[in-house]
Amino acid sequence: xxxxxxxxxxxxxxxxxxxxxxxxxxxxxxxxxxxxxxxxxxxxxxxxxxxxxxxxxxxxxxxxxxxxxxxxxxxxxxxxxxxxxxxxxxxxxxxxxxxxxxxxxxxxxxxxxxxxxxxxxxxxxxxxxxxxxxxxxxxxxxxxxxxxxxxxxxxxxxxxxxxxxxxxxxxxxxxxxxxxxxxxxxxxxxxxxxxxxxxxxxxxxxxxxxxxxxxxxxxxxxxxxxxxxxxxxxxxxxxxxxxxxxxxxxxxxxxxxxxxxxxxxxxxxxxxxxxxxxxxxxxxxxxxxxxxxxxxxxxxxxxxxxxxxxxxxxxxxxxxxxxxxxx
Length: 327
Prior knowledge:
By secondary structure, the chain is an alpha/beta fold.
């Protein structure tokens, strides 16, 4: 059957309530919520740094920075907050059996948002890029093991690697610290290799590697070649080439998560019938039979829901679940 899930982020600061929402509204594939409203330690970058192995970081007025040594107080807080959130998950999901999804910022998104100890982004230094990706891969192994310990009944664990910056990285569109220039584009083989280290760590841990990006022009072929077995995208942002890549992934037995609802409150609320029809039109466009590939489809919001109202969050997840049921 077709499943529904969230991308990751939700509004507000009440973590226990967010867990109740995802466990209640998304019974087929709940996910570990992210609440960036709690501050820098809870953002996608802060959570990604909390997973890193061996590398230290601290928080500066300009944002997160690697230290080249021990962790700063904010980095320690980010790790502590993640552990507290997993404690809350373990408590609320006692006896849970089924699929579950966690998220982590990808190596290129971290490289494009975190600074080196000497300034400017990690993206500016090939050696630093490599070290960051390898530290993330090692940290992901430990993170997956921790989640498995807390959810022993989860028979399918999905690790969604968030890469919203990947398109800008390979296109040379990431601004430097000054804002007056752009970092040089990263060669596709290097981009694939760094991502592959992380995805291979997920696979070696017995989990299912997905990559999510709601940015246009994300190189989905590169993502598949790097080892992703699930592609999570915004349906409204796809190019003709993207449609072909996604169809090929479904035909190969891989998962496609389609973002079919806006991440913020819409002027008019779509119905589950309208969402179902949009997915069926897309399947017709790419020449696939819903009866054959429906079990490998997942319906999601287009991006995270951190900017949505609590009312829209509940409505969106309910519509997604109903639409998935129709499919």
